Amino acid sequence: MGSKNKLKRFNENATFNNVFQPTREEVTSDNFSMKGKWNKEVFKNNHPLVLELGCGKGEYSVGLAERYPNKNFIGVDIKGARFWRGAKTAVEGGMNNVAFLRTQIELIENCFAEGEVDEIWITFPDPQIKYKRTKHRLTNSEFLQRYKRILKHNGIMNLKTDSEFMHGYTLGLLHGQGHEVIYANHNVYKNEGSPEVVTAIQTFYESQYLEQNKAITYIQFKIK
Prior knowledge:
- By secondary structure, the chain is an alpha/beta fold.
- It has two domains: 1-101, Vaccinia Virus protein VP39 (Rossmann fold, 3-Layer(aba) Sandwich), CATH 3.40.50.150; 114-224, 3-Layer(aba) Sandwich (Rossmann fold).
- It is globular.
- The chain has nine helices and eight strands.
- Helix 1 (3-13) crosses helix 5.
């Protein structure tokens, strides 16, 4: 993407009422005004709040919001030029139950209050295969504890990935630490018992993976 195009998207994001772009300083100093107030201030209802972390173009956030009008969705990504597409689609479609937050996932606890979130989706994250990059892996122990703090009691986690490595790593960690695995499958499109929501929404890259015959894996779990 050219820098001109990126700038255009950043400028357009600033005009969308469904995009929130706090400064790093606002977030790290715990001065982010939306923390604990997403439903009240943004969605103006008490519906369940669902996050998509590392939302990319926002296809999954928008797809979920279309399917579940009685839930509120927030796509989170540091790359605003990417989620511009999802934000624009939502604005043009008059969708009031989806928003986007530009921040780093490491700072997620500074953006949501304890127990504010009902469910989290992690879709096709970078598996960070090299050992020295494990601290960036979105399902490592440290990240799981961050999610636990913002999730309601019995909140649900979902991991959907094309990476067998990420699937196996996460499953091993969950079992090893005694978390509750509700459902796990290493090839959801070949399994008739897969939850419908997992196969009903496809991202652009996911459809490419499927064309290449790559297995799409899925885990649903609760953090103990």
